[in-house]
Amino acid sequence: MTRSTSLLALLIGVASRPLSSQTAGAAHRFDMSGQRASFQQALVHNGKWLTAAGVAAFTVVAATEHRLSRRDWNSLLTICRSDRDACAVGADGRYLRPDAEALYQRSREYDRRANRWLVGAQLSLIATTALFIIDLHPGQGPENIPFPAQVRVGAMPDGARLEMRIAF
Predict the structure, then answer these.
(1) Can you give the three-state secondary structure of the chain, one letter per residue?
(2) Is 8 part of a structural domain of the chain?
(3) 114 lies in some domain
(4) What is the pLDDT along the chain (168 residues), one digit of tens a residue?
(5) Structural domain span for residue 118
(6) For residue 132, is it within any domain?
Protein backbone atom coordinates (compact mmCIF):
# COMPACT_ATOMS: atom_id res chain seq x y z
CA MET A 1 0.00 0.00 0.00
CA THR A 2 2.85 2.37 0.78
CA ARG A 3 4.51 1.69 -2.56
CA SER A 4 1.36 2.54 -4.54
CA THR A 5 0.79 5.70 -2.49
CA SER A 6 4.38 6.81 -3.11
CA LEU A 7 4.04 6.09 -6.81
CA LEU A 8 0.80 8.09 -6.97
CA ALA A 9 2.42 11.06 -5.17
CA LEU A 10 5.38 10.91 -7.55
CA LEU A 11 3.08 10.91 -10.60
CA ILE A 12 1.08 13.85 -9.26
CA GLY A 13 4.27 15.78 -8.55
CA VAL A 14 5.64 15.16 -12.04
CA ALA A 15 2.33 16.01 -13.70
CA SER A 16 1.98 19.28 -11.79
CA ARG A 17 5.48 20.50 -12.74
CA PRO A 18 5.45 22.64 -15.90
CA LEU A 19 7.41 21.36 -18.85
CA SER A 20 10.35 23.34 -20.12
CA SER A 21 8.39 24.39 -23.22
CA GLN A 22 5.62 25.70 -20.98
CA THR A 23 8.03 27.92 -19.07
CA ALA A 24 9.61 29.41 -22.18
CA GLY A 25 8.84 32.95 -23.26
CA ALA A 26 5.73 34.06 -25.12
CA ALA A 27 7.56 33.85 -28.47
CA HIS A 28 7.74 30.06 -28.18
CA ARG A 29 4.09 29.47 -27.32
CA PHE A 30 1.73 28.05 -29.89
CA ASP A 31 -1.68 29.61 -30.48
CA MET A 32 -4.07 26.84 -31.53
CA SER A 33 -7.23 28.98 -31.47
CA GLY A 34 -6.87 29.93 -35.14
CA GLN A 35 -6.60 26.30 -36.19
CA ARG A 36 -9.60 25.34 -34.10
CA ALA A 37 -11.68 28.18 -35.55
CA SER A 38 -10.70 27.32 -39.12
CA PHE A 39 -11.49 23.65 -38.49
CA GLN A 40 -14.91 24.57 -37.13
CA GLN A 41 -15.57 26.87 -40.08
CA ALA A 42 -14.59 24.12 -42.52
CA LEU A 43 -16.75 21.62 -40.65
CA VAL A 44 -19.79 23.92 -40.75
CA HIS A 45 -19.18 24.99 -44.35
CA ASN A 46 -18.85 21.42 -45.65
CA GLY A 47 -21.34 19.94 -43.19
CA LYS A 48 -24.19 22.05 -44.56
CA TRP A 49 -23.73 20.43 -47.97
CA LEU A 50 -23.57 16.97 -46.42
CA THR A 51 -26.84 17.50 -44.55
CA ALA A 52 -28.41 18.98 -47.70
CA ALA A 53 -27.46 15.80 -49.55
CA GLY A 54 -29.01 13.86 -46.67
CA VAL A 55 -32.29 15.73 -47.18
CA ALA A 56 -32.34 14.73 -50.83
CA ALA A 57 -31.37 11.11 -50.12
CA PHE A 58 -33.92 10.66 -47.33
CA THR A 59 -36.65 12.15 -49.53
CA VAL A 60 -35.80 9.80 -52.42
CA VAL A 61 -35.88 6.76 -50.13
CA ALA A 62 -39.20 7.93 -48.62
CA ALA A 63 -40.67 8.31 -52.11
CA THR A 64 -39.54 4.77 -52.97
CA GLU A 65 -41.14 3.37 -49.83
CA HIS A 66 -44.34 5.28 -50.58
CA ARG A 67 -44.39 3.91 -54.13
CA LEU A 68 -44.11 0.35 -52.75
CA SER A 69 -46.95 1.08 -50.35
CA ARG A 70 -49.15 2.38 -53.17
CA ARG A 71 -48.35 -0.71 -55.26
CA ASP A 72 -49.53 -3.05 -52.50
CA TRP A 73 -52.56 -0.85 -51.77
CA ASN A 74 -53.58 -0.89 -55.45
CA SER A 75 -53.19 -4.68 -55.46
CA LEU A 76 -55.48 -4.85 -52.44
CA LEU A 77 -58.03 -2.64 -54.21
CA THR A 78 -57.86 -4.95 -57.24
CA ILE A 79 -58.67 -7.92 -55.00
CA CYS A 80 -61.52 -6.03 -53.36
CA ARG A 81 -63.03 -5.04 -56.71
CA SER A 82 -62.80 -8.57 -58.09
CA ASP A 83 -65.47 -10.00 -55.78
CA ARG A 84 -68.02 -8.53 -53.45
CA ASP A 85 -66.92 -10.66 -50.48
CA ALA A 86 -63.19 -10.58 -51.28
CA CYS A 87 -62.51 -7.86 -48.71
CA ALA A 88 -64.77 -9.06 -45.96
CA VAL A 89 -63.49 -8.13 -42.52
CA GLY A 90 -63.67 -10.37 -39.46
CA ALA A 91 -64.71 -9.44 -35.94
CA ASP A 92 -61.10 -8.59 -35.07
CA GLY A 93 -60.89 -6.04 -37.93
CA ARG A 94 -58.66 -8.16 -40.16
CA TYR A 95 -59.39 -9.22 -43.70
CA LEU A 96 -60.68 -12.78 -43.94
CA ARG A 97 -58.58 -13.52 -47.01
CA PRO A 98 -54.93 -14.02 -46.01
CA ASP A 99 -53.57 -12.50 -49.24
CA ALA A 100 -55.66 -9.33 -48.74
CA GLU A 101 -54.50 -9.06 -45.13
CA ALA A 102 -50.87 -9.55 -46.15
CA LEU A 103 -51.14 -6.80 -48.77
CA TYR A 104 -52.75 -4.47 -46.25
CA GLN A 105 -50.09 -5.10 -43.58
CA ARG A 106 -47.26 -4.72 -46.09
CA SER A 107 -48.74 -1.45 -47.36
CA ARG A 108 -48.95 -0.11 -43.80
CA GLU A 109 -45.35 -1.12 -43.10
CA TYR A 110 -44.09 0.67 -46.20
CA ASP A 111 -46.05 3.75 -45.13
CA ARG A 112 -44.47 3.65 -41.66
CA ARG A 113 -41.02 3.42 -43.21
CA ALA A 114 -41.77 6.30 -45.57
CA ASN A 115 -42.89 8.43 -42.62
CA ARG A 116 -39.65 7.68 -40.75
CA TRP A 117 -37.55 8.64 -43.77
CA LEU A 118 -39.54 11.86 -44.14
CA VAL A 119 -38.93 12.72 -40.48
CA GLY A 120 -35.23 12.13 -41.10
CA ALA A 121 -35.38 14.41 -44.13
CA GLN A 122 -37.09 17.12 -42.09
CA LEU A 123 -34.52 16.88 -39.30
CA SER A 124 -31.74 17.06 -41.88
CA LEU A 125 -33.41 20.12 -43.39
CA ILE A 126 -33.47 21.79 -39.97
CA ALA A 127 -29.79 20.96 -39.48
CA THR A 128 -28.98 22.25 -42.97
CA THR A 129 -30.80 25.52 -42.29
CA ALA A 130 -28.98 25.94 -38.99
CA LEU A 131 -25.62 25.28 -40.62
CA PHE A 132 -26.34 27.76 -43.42
CA ILE A 133 -27.19 30.40 -40.81
CA ILE A 134 -24.08 29.60 -38.77
CA ASP A 135 -21.95 29.82 -41.92
CA LEU A 136 -23.10 33.38 -42.65
CA HIS A 137 -20.35 35.89 -42.25
CA PRO A 138 -21.72 38.84 -40.23
CA GLY A 139 -20.57 42.24 -41.39
CA GLN A 140 -19.47 40.88 -44.74
CA GLY A 141 -22.65 41.52 -46.69
CA PRO A 142 -22.84 41.76 -50.45
CA GLU A 143 -21.63 44.94 -52.12
CA ASN A 144 -25.03 45.81 -53.60
CA ILE A 145 -26.52 46.74 -50.20
CA PRO A 146 -25.37 50.32 -49.62
CA PHE A 147 -26.77 50.79 -46.12
CA PRO A 148 -26.15 47.89 -43.73
CA ALA A 149 -28.91 47.90 -41.14
CA GLN A 150 -29.18 46.59 -37.62
CA VAL A 151 -32.60 45.43 -36.46
CA ARG A 152 -33.43 44.70 -32.84
CA VAL A 153 -36.70 43.46 -31.41
CA GLY A 154 -37.47 43.82 -27.72
CA ALA A 155 -40.35 43.13 -25.37
CA MET A 156 -42.22 45.94 -23.65
CA PRO A 157 -44.99 45.80 -21.04
CA ASP A 158 -47.67 46.81 -23.55
CA GLY A 159 -46.28 45.11 -26.68
CA ALA A 160 -43.09 44.80 -28.63
CA ARG A 161 -40.43 47.30 -29.66
CA LEU A 162 -38.77 47.29 -33.05
CA GLU A 163 -35.61 49.28 -33.45
CA MET A 164 -33.80 49.74 -36.76
CA ARG A 165 -30.54 51.57 -37.23
CA ILE A 166 -29.24 52.40 -40.66
CA ALA A 167 -25.64 53.55 -40.99
CA PHE A 168 -24.99 55.90 -43.90
Answers:
(1) CHHHHHHHHHHHHHHHCCCHHHHCCHHHCCCCHHHHHHHHHHHHHHHHHHHHHHHHHHHHHHHHHHHHHHHHHHHHHHHHHHCCCCCCECCCCCECCHHHHHHHHHHHHHHHHHHHHHHHHHHHHHHHHHHHHHCCCCCCCCCCCCCCEEEEEEEECCEEEEEEEECC
(2) no
(3) yes
(4) 455 555 445 445 544 455 554 454 445 455 455 566 677 778 888 889 999 999 999 999 999 999 999 999 999 999 999 988 888 999 999 999 999 999 999 999 999 999 999 999 999 999 999 888 888 865 565 566 555 567 777 778 888 787 777 665
(5) 35-137
(6) yes
